[in-house]
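Lab notebook: predicted structure, single chain.

Context: the supervisor wants predicted structures on file for every construct in the current expression panel, including those that have not yet been purified. This is the next one on the list. No modifications to the sequence; it matches the entry in the shared construct table.
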Amino acid sequence: QRGRPHFLRPSKFDSMAEGKAKQARQEAASGRAAKDFLEADPPDAITLGALSQLDVRKLGLASVPSSLGLCRRLVKLDLGDNPLLKVPDLVAELPCLEILFASGVDMKEVPLAVHKCEKLHMVGFRNNQIASLNGACFPQNLAWLIAAGNQIREMPNISRLQHIRKLMLSHNRLTCAGLAPVAEIPALEMLRVAGNCLEAFPKALLRHPRLAWVAVGGNPFAEAALEKRLHGAPPLVDFKEVSVGEKLGSGAGATVYRGSWRGRVVAVKLWDQETFSDGSAKGEWSINLVASAPGHRSIIGVLGAFSEPRMGMILELLENAVAAAGPPTPASVTRDSPPSDGRKLDSVGALKVAEGVALAGAYLHSRGLTHADIYLHNTLIITEPVPRGGPLVSVRDVRLSDFGGATAVSDDEDGRALQRLELRSFGWLLQDLLDLCMAAPAPEEADAVALLQDVRARCAQEDVERLPKFADLAVELSTFLHGHGSGVAPVGAL
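Prediction complete. Output recorded below exactly as produced.
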């Protein structure tokens, strides 16, 4: 080091950074490196004992080495897309395990070893061959269970899992009778059962005291309602009129591109896969088609739809729009995470977001639809900085987006009950909005904050019959906004 200029010599901060990087490598391992750790002979007990995350997806593992049992501090384990045929009994030897993924491993049943992982709170067993989802095979404190894309027909002992808040069961073979026992899970907030064999939605679930997000598209009863709604849908457009440009982003089952259509710059959405956790490409495409006529200013405008060469839509392009919050994390389960940029809203901005989502919800309900995924992370906003406001921004536009879990409902009481349940998700959105407001609002904002708190409380009613309607809330929020001299223009009108 003596002959090197001082500015090229490693400082104590460089050494600290290198130490932290080494520690990070030891705490999380994935891919080939993770496989090498497990298959080393003799195993490196120190390295394995320090791991908190291990990802061995898609590595062709037919079995898991016994060295997995040395990972005593492992918190997250992903075994997905390996020909394992089952989850190894070794998981019972991992006392700190909280998150376990074993999707696409061709297992036919859940092993009892999973039950012994007492700290597990999130499990993902998508795309396997499970026919019976036995609640006795899971630890009682489980909060998030993903079992979409299996062959599930029955769920014995599922009510034993009293703390489940998020239950993902789309694309299985559940009937109304097979699903009904989940109504006995008191903590349940989100239920995904799209693409099953439900001839109706269980009555007990329609009366559930906490259920807020419900996706049921692709079931026989929902398909019948959707067919009726599609009768008034606008005609399809010719894809030859569309020019597709750069990729803007991708999500569950679809990719969005910048494009042009009839002289207008647009967004072009093309579906890449037929099914996803909330529903199906055909279902989302159809719901957007129904919602497009006549459309509403508080939802993303659908300008046209086409079915050839594959299903897609022409959407208005919102420049500079961002999600109002981040999606839920394994820790938050059903609650959104704060925006990554740390932005905050004043009460007017929060009210404008609430008004826009309420107007969008009212419009969708008037069209015989439910959104099923009302969240701030599915709400696009266009913001402007506030002079000397620090993280504070003002809101210029609001749009509810992402219809992946949306469904059509019948005109009877069951359909109206499904729509009423959705008001609880709006209540959680309002809670997240309140959390985004500045910690010490100005005195003149007290009434606005009080209104948001009051509406939020009304949307938390355990009695479904007492939940408010989106149309009434939209009027109430709009009246407050424009009756208090805020100078804010309405987001839209019913």
